[in-house]
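Data card: per-record layout.
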Amino acid sequence: MKKYFLTSAQIALILVYLVIFAGAFVRLTGSGMGCPDWPKCFGYYIPPTEQQELLFAAGKEYDKGQVIIKEEALLVAKNDFTSKTSFDSTNWEKYTKHDYAIFNPIHTWVEYINRLLGALAGIACVITFILSFGYRKENKKLILLTFLICVLMGFQAWLGKTVVDSVLNPFKITTHMLAALLIVALQLIVIYTVKKHNKTLVFNQKFNWILAGALGLTIIQIVLGTTVREHVDIVSETGAPEIMWLQNPTIAFYIHRSFSIIVLLTNLYLFYLNRKLTLGFNKINWVIIILFIEIISGILMYYFAFPFGTQTIHVVLATLLFGVQFYTILESNNKKMLF
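The structure for this 339-residue chain is written out next.
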């Protein structure tokens, strides 16, 4: 079991990041309500590709829970039945969790793939939890951590359901993102715990404190970013063109934009300390590269009217930045380092 544990944990982490990417792409394409029900999609395990499949048809076999769109409303089959020539309302009940009843095949399949990746990530986390029992004698903490990750993945699935039921409530979307970061952090702890560390890193208390502060700044920036995104979503839903999405931004946008300077300077100082004191934390180089690309994507969104893909890149890079910084903190607190 030990032999495959690390590989399984790493695969689970990659899948979680793929889910984050897919979730960002869902928001980019406005596909959040592509599947208006949960866990199925329009009552199907494999969603339809044409609206015709969601319209009432005579002589068709319907399964319990299957969904159709009729008169701009979602109707759910009460039981298994075969439809007659005319529509019989007694076989159907209205979907009551929300009144969103629009079918867009692209949105539906983007959201469906997002859910599939989430399911795969969940399965990978469960497998990692099972494999963690190989460490039950020497490190029971791994069993607890991997179990907690599974619980959080279940919470994420439930939260995803409530996001759909609430027709994409902004607060719940933000909570969804923060929960994903917590999962990433726990997965990195698991991976770091079992991974062999051959590099010699030099402990420096000043570097450690600033690194912890930099991670805190990143989390604040992510929260501010989701607030800005909520405003953008509201404006975009009015049908306004991209050039107008940040024409009258909230104060959160200006704080988010200005705060990025503090984030950059803090991490540049860490880069300087790492080089000057020869501490050996090479992942700080990754942090700087990610930050510069992140800032460029932000500039492109604001000054060039949200070029396609920049929003997704911006979100995914923020989570990657968090992951690299958190892993560097784990390295900097390694008890085996030279003092």
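Known properties of this structure: The chain has a mean pLDDT of 90. The chain has three domains: 1-33+105-196, 35-103, 199-339.

See the next section for split statistics.
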